[in-house]
Amino acid sequence: MKLKFLLASFAALILGVSMSSAQIVYKKEKKGESNNVSISIGKQDSENEDEQEDDGDADSKYPRAYGGITFTRLDWGFSRLSDDGSFTLSEDNKFMSYKKSSNFGFDIAQFGVRFNDNFKMYLSAGFEWNYWRLKNDVLLLQDQSPIAYDDLNPDAKYSKNVITSTYLRVPLSFELRTRQLSGGKRVKLAFGAMTGVLLKGTQRLKSEEFGKQKYKDNYNLQTFQYGPFVRIGYDNFGLFTKYYMNDLFEKSPDQEGLRNLAFGITLGF
């Protein structure tokens, strides 16, 4: 609980520092044959180095800081559970067998330093969700440690059984980019450490017999998750992969080694 409070306070501090010198920036750039329009709050990092040089102010010097409220690095992809390195779940983890899975997240605040035209580092804060549509008709039990579950009512036909984890994510990123290519665009590579604090767990059910049902609990999901990530892309589009190095569930010995791998596309890179 203390760790959750400290990290939430830290994210709020980043947001507060960014807002202390915030300004609303409306920017329209013509690059090649395309127009890019952006609205942001705070001091932003520029994609076009020529603009910084033309300004003739301190912003054209390195290193320089930037930060503020943002809506960027929109991740949308898949979650895969790894069980001691295998994508085939062991008998103890069969209850988490899924038909479909997804990962979704985005950043809402950032603070960073650009050291030169090709390298910067930044700390950001945002939210991340993982969804698992379960194959089996099981109900995770609330307020149980280690994690426990029961079979659902056999007389009901369930069309939906989804487990969702919601995290506050705080990634530290190191980003490299090439010189400006055709149309002012660049190739980018970002890597670093992704951390997250659990906000809630949810299970949603749907059946003809009982309609929609929703349950909330932490379900022994990992309170604090961490792991490396990599993004590679061109202009505002990219691919990402994230691997969380600690277990999906905590205080559940039978689930040791069950970990989450996510991958997909990134918008606003």
Automatic annotation (TrEMBL):
| InterPro entries named in the record | Beta-barrel_OMP_2 (IPR025665)
Region (Disordered) location: 35-63
Q: Which domain of life is it from?
A: Bacteria
- Annotated Outer membrane protein beta-barrel domain ranges read 84-245
Keywords in alphabetical order: Signal
Compositional bias ranges of the Acidic residues kind? 47-57
Signal sequence range = 1-22
Q: Does the keyword Signal apply?
A: yes
Q: Does the keyword Lipoprotein apply?
A: no
Recorded protein name is PorT family protein
Report the source organism.
Sphingobacterium tenebrionis
